Amino acid sequence: MTDVTMEADRATARADSVHRGLFLVLAIVTAYACLHAGFRLLASDVLGEDDVYDIVFAQDLRAGYDAFPRQPPLYNWVLWTVQQALGPRLESFLLIKYAALVAAAGFLYLAARRALNDTLFALLTVESMALIYSISWRYHEGFTHEVGAMVAVLATTWLLFRVLQDERPADFAGLAVAMGLGFLTEPAYIVFLVTFVLAAALQPGMRRALFKPQLLLALAVAIAIASPYWLWLLEEPRRLRWLTRIWADGWSFNLNGMWDAVRGPVAYLSPLLFILPFLFPGWLKTAWADLKSSPFGCHKPNYELLVLHAGALALAVSILGALVFEVRGLAVHVLMPLYLPSVIWLFSVARRSMVDPIEVKRFGRVAIAIAVVAFVARMANLYIMDPVCQTCRWGIPYAALAQEMRARGFDGNGTIVSLEHELTGNLRQLFPNAKILARAHPTFTPEGADWTRGRVAYVWDPKMPMNKAQRHLRFLLPKGIEARDAELLSVPWKSFWRETGYRKSSWNLLILDKGRKKRIINTGRREHRLGL
């Protein structure tokens, strides 16, 4: 057998190993996603957290959304597209979220396989997602735009590795698409991309492979893909106000921002970052050696150190942002684009520090155990609710409120004005044919909304002071009608294991018919208890 034949056989074997690993990852993560999505659907169709904002924005397809001008709109575009088929329902959110999780796991595996050249540890890198709190728990409970950013970051990482290793035109083309879509996910994606490219530039071997005319062409294509949003952002100066507010009151040392920046990688990668040293005893020694290493001495490309140095540069940029631009108050999950690829380096350290295969088995068992515990805890949150949870938003009886609105004459083809974001989002799901206006943060008016005729329902939380509600509604109510004319509804909660009515939710409701000389369907400040 010739050397060429032997090398071809080895290449085929490597490709088969990569494909088998990818199939395994996609199959397992798909089963995991279906399990979580299925039980979520069985528990409740109530929307919560970020979903309630985006379902309202998805009434229209826009280049940008004034309620959150600094938030790129890719997620809203995808949501709008999916909801054309499924309608404004919880299922559309779950489909996007868990499809993104499966895609992210696949790209993470492919990137790790490229960097580590080890199928087993590439699989462990994917399994480590169960040991990152923001993914194993918070991902299921919240997140909208972050799910797209996760896919974009990991796809970009994989494609950058392909460009650095193979330098093929097709890889530059894929990189262009990934960057363009990434620009439309989260602002932090740009920081990730810049720091990753800078980290590659520090290694002489990588610099020659990456900085070619094809990279500039890919960047130009990426900018063209993201241009609808960026052009929209530049149309009106007020949309850039969040940039111009820097130093509005003079520069001051931003201690909170500094703390956010320094703790960022530790907070995001927890508890994985603390578990690995216990399961791989030589981990700290190997990690310390990497931290002391210099990229300038890497005459051969070192992809493991590339990931480490990109994360270090991201940390430096975060500190610079806190010092110079007074960036502060960022949630941990906002830092995901900066530090998610770092799990590849974490497992490169584990692979090089491993002294006994039992360490791998131990890690696998711990990861599975934590995933099971997280799943059981989430089911308790969804099905038992209090005392397991505090807000317990999954149990709020929005559907019963919708029934009462219909009973009072609102048929769902008119206009709804809401003054509370979770209420607004859930009413959008329950009245898919209505135009939903949000009149408390965030303010949003869909195209074609007309509250001057037809039936209009005004609904809000009674915790809002009446004078504040009046200020929000003063231009939307006809002359002679005020917020205090609303009816107070008290709606009981239902539970799988408690007596109905153990808890209740209340709303102010005012329904007007503006097509019949503004005849009022319900007036009078009174409390109406339902089913109690």
Summarize the structure.
The protein is an alpha/beta fold and 532 residues long. Helix content is 59%, strand content 7%. Residues 523-532 have low confidence and may be disordered.
Task: Summarize the SSE layout with pairings.
Elements: H1 3-43, H2 51-57, H3 74-86, H4 90-116, H5 119-127, H6 133-136, H7 138-141, H8 145-166, H9 169-183, H10 188-201, H11 204-210, H12 213-235, H13 241-244, H14 255-268, H15 272-279, H16 283-291, H17 303-324, H18 336-339, H19 342-353, H20 358-384, H21 398-407, E1 415-418, H22 421-430, E2 435-438, E3 455-460, H23 466-473, E4 487-492, E5 504-513, E6 519-520, E7 527-529
Parallel strand pairs: 1-2, 1-3, 4-7
Antiparallel strand pairs: 3-5, 4-5, 5-6
Describe the structure.
The chain has about 525 residues and is an alpha/beta fold. The protein has two domains: about 20-235 and about 255-380, no CATH class; about 395-530, no CATH class. The chain has 23 helices and seven strands. The protein has helices at about 5-45, 50-55, 75-85, 90-115, 120-125, 135, 140, 145-165, 170-185, 190-200, 205-210, 215-235, 240-245, 255-270, 270-280, 285-290, 305-325, 335-340, 340-355, 360-385, 400-405, 420-430, 465-475; strands at about 415-420, 435-440, 455-460, 485-490, 505-515, 520, 525-530. Strands 1, 2, 3, 4, 5, 6 and 7 form a seven-stranded mixed beta sheet that branches. Strand 1, helix 22 (about 420-430) and strand 2 form a beta-alpha-beta unit. The radius of gyration is 26 Å and the shape is globular. The N and C termini lie far apart (about 85 Å).
